[in-house]
Amino acid sequence: MTDALPLLTSRNPADPTDVLVRIPAPGAFAAVDTVERARAAQPGWLRAGAAARSAALGAVAAGIEAAADELAALAVREVGKPLAEARAEVARTVAIWRYYAQAPFDPTGAVHETAAGAGLLLSRRRPHGVAGLVTPWNFPFAIPTWKAAPALATGNTVVLKPAPEATACALRLAEIVRGVLPEGVFTVLPGGATEGNALVSAADVVSFTGSTPVGQAVARAATARGIPAQAEMGGLNAALVLPDADIEQAAAHIAASIAGYAGQKCTATSRVIAVGAALDPLREALSEALRAVPVGDPADPATVCGPLVHEHARDQVVEAARGLSVLAGGTVPDRIGWYATPTLVEKVSPGHRLLREEVFGPVASLLAADDLAHAIRITNSVPYGLVTSVHTADLNTALHGLDLLDTGMIRINAPSTGVDFHLPFGGSKASSHGPREQGAAALDFYTSGRTYTLAPAGPGA
């Protein structure tokens, strides 16, 4: 007699009594079997040719677009994403599939002259085989897409292991994708750590997005096997505001980056660094902007800050602000669901967890810097380096600071949140491991380079 497999459960964060999914986890053996089926399907998917792969990815985009309202509503219900953001995510998901639908026609290599004599030298990029994708719940359609679409475009097959909290979204996405692609080319593997570990142990290339400890473990496991891996992990992102900035605009951008989707983005702002005379006006403007953020039902189109994904996440936000000087928020709304008000604190001691760890909620610390050099030192003082926003009217000042900031992405006079899917995405230090995601960088990651020497045969060769 065997023990029953654990149940995967996904609940509505705005109404925890609403259960979307409750299914048995498949287990490690099922995960490995799924990878083997994907491996068997991979040669046929590659041999189908560029036109077939391009048409298939385009058809996936059309299928998602046709189901856009349904998918947005599902993201609202399963992961608590505010409706406006959910609609924007689905639209971006469609755009990503269309962007990579053209990739199968891109050159896969180059022809070179030999150093001496007859013949040809060729360089060519080929797919790895099975791409194992481990994705988080906060962007349940876009993140699986920006991993899967380039992997598929370059001739790999895909096994996607979504976070348990986004199981319903992943299964619905899979229905649309599998309606277009051949059997075994794209498979969703529901599950938790057991299934994720099994996938990493069996796939030919691995892409992970999630927490830093898990991402580091994935990178170690993949490195031990000698397979390519990328891991996008935590952030402790800063917004630098200089005295010459448009303070009202900066406050609006930063408030959106703190409170949008309840701060549940790796690119959210969690440290606000006011330089010199910017401190007092920014304190007032940002506190007012955060108090004005609409908090409520994610199904309401006006909502900006919905619920946290689960009770523990909500409690983390409340605990992080306890005992600090609170300028805005710091409370739990009296309503069903896992809500917390957008929170701004100041007078935070250097060793406090808010300045060391990613809380992943709508809470940020207001810090003071004497000048730009001091602000850059504060920004770079944490283990993470994903994105920094800089707010200033002086382009020379912005450019001076660009190369000194130890982050993978820098946004000038813009929120720290926001991703351009056709450009490389990633950070430095503990925020990222391995090559960049998105854009053309993803096509390189999901392929390996080969060098061919073609020499003439026969007499005189």
3D architecture notes:
The structure is a single chain. The chain has 461 residues and is of the alpha/beta class. It has helices spanning 28-47, 50-66, 68-79, 83-101, 142-153, 167-178, 193-202, 212-225, 247-259, 279-291, 311-321, 372-380, 395-402, 439-445; strands at residues 7-12, 15-24, 109-112, 120-127, 130-135, 157-162, 186-188, 205-209, 229-232, 237-241, 269-275, 325-328, 343-346, 363-369, 384-385, 387-391, 409-412, 428-429, 432-433, 447-454. Strand 6, helix 6 and strand 7 form a beta-alpha-beta unit. The radius of gyration is 24 Å and the shape is globular. It starts with 6 loop residues before the first strand and ends in a 7-residue tail after the last strand. The model has no long low-confidence stretch (mean pLDDT 95).
Give descriptors for this structure.
seven-stranded mixed β-sheet, single chain, globular, alpha/beta, 461 residues, 14 helices, six-stranded mixed β-sheet
Helical residue percent? 25-40%
The overall average pLDDT, rounded, is: 95
Q: What's the arrangement of strands in the largest beta sheet?
A: 12-13-14-11-10-16-17
**Radius of gyration of CA atoms, rounded to a whole number:** 24 Å
Total strands: the figure is 20
Shape: globular
Going by helix content, strand content and strand pairing, the class is: alpha/beta
Oligomer: single chain
Give the strand content.
15-25%
Outline of this structure?
This protein is an alpha/beta fold. It has helices at residues 28-47, 50-66, 68-79, 83-101, 142-153, 167-178, 193-202, 212-225, 247-259, 279-291, 311-321, 372-380, 395-402, 439-445, and strands spanning 7-12, 15-24, 109-112, 120-127, 130-135, 157-162, 186-188, 205-209, 229-232, 237-241, 269-275, 325-328, 343-346, 363-369, 384-385, 387-391, 409-412, 428-429, 432-433, 447-454.
